[in-house]
Amino acid sequence: MSFKVGIVPVTAFQQNCALVWDDETKSGAVIDPGGDVSLIMSQINKLGLSITDIFLTHGHIDHAGGAAELAGMLGVRITGPGIGDEFLLDSLAEQGRSYGISAKNCAPDVWLKAGDTIRLGGEDFEVRHCPGHTPGHMVFLNRSMNFGFVGDVLFRGSVGRTDFGDYGDHEQLIASIERELLVLPDEFSFLCGHGPGSTIGAERKSNPFLVG
Asked: Average pLDDT, stretch 94-118?
């Protein structure tokens, strides 16, 4: 298979910025460039990739803080997340100052919505809306490969934070997971926004937020 994924942990949050490419053509995309843009660029150049797109799962600084800078350097468009996260992308620079992270506000070229299809590494991924962690959070799923990118919705042994004042919603997050992710087969594997990936089956069986 020519579909390849590389992970570049970025910022103090150790967010999993993903490089996704077709190994035959070297055409690729970046998912969630949260910062450390020079490190991301170094990996792109090391792999010899031709990046055509930047995709965002949601608008938190550790996922989107470097998107505007990277897009400018590469001359590519930014797609996603859902428009519900516009207020977060409009305040990235402010968020950065509070965390000591260099960030620029981000205005995506295209907003994503549930049911859209995006192209990653020569493969089509379905876009699904999974609010709760943020209002406009999207996940990218490829059912034929049983693989997806779920951002900060679901983790190995945990779920996304929802203690964000007026917009985090734990009940909504769990409902999103049940509706969009737990309907997938046990062997479906996923990359999350932080830490190691997992499978739907493993989380269905042992994730304390989902069991019982």
From this structure: 93
